[in-house]
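Weekly structure sync, notes
Attendees: PL (lead), two postdocs, one rotation student
Agenda item 3: pending single-chain targets
PL asked that the sequence for the first pending target be pasted directly into the notes so everyone works from the same version. It is reproduced below exactly as submitted, 164 residues in total.
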Amino acid sequence: MALRDRYGRTQAMVLSMVGLGIFVDTVSMGMITPGIPDLLQSKLRIGDYANGLLYGCFGVILGAVTAGLVSDRYKSRTVPMVAGLLGLIGTITLFATANKFWELVVARISQGVASGVTWTIGLSIVADVVPEEQLGAAMGTTSIGLTLGKYNAALFSSSRNLDN
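Predicted structure, written out during the meeting:
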């Protein structure tokens, strides 16, 4: 019988969902981040200094630390995890519709917070459900999402470069 946590979730379901969250985060970051310099120069006519500022905005609010504090106070970690995933969707939309530099700054800060939430809460959920002696294998399993996300982002970037 599959081990279930107090909410009825199985280990396989938790590992799949957290892996999917990590995948979405990695793909979104891998698709957005390489295009920032081109976006700044071609659409907004802003140089390298602004590019550096945008890269630095990612960790400004320390999303992982904040997510850890919030997650420990919630009865269920599911609500903050879903909020983090919705935040990732929102940041993709913000990047796609941004026409001003400050909009990109808001999108990048939001991306950092959403990423911190997704990773911190997701791995906390795994630690809640999986017995300690199986935790290493479980964390490795969820990391499949990271590997697949990087692979898909690299495919996207290489196909984008071929189009130019």
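Discussion points:
- Helices lie at 11-32, 36-43, 48-57, 63-73, 78-97, 101-129, 135-142, 144-163.
- The first helix runs from residue 11 to 32.
Action: rotation student to compare against the earlier draft before next sync.
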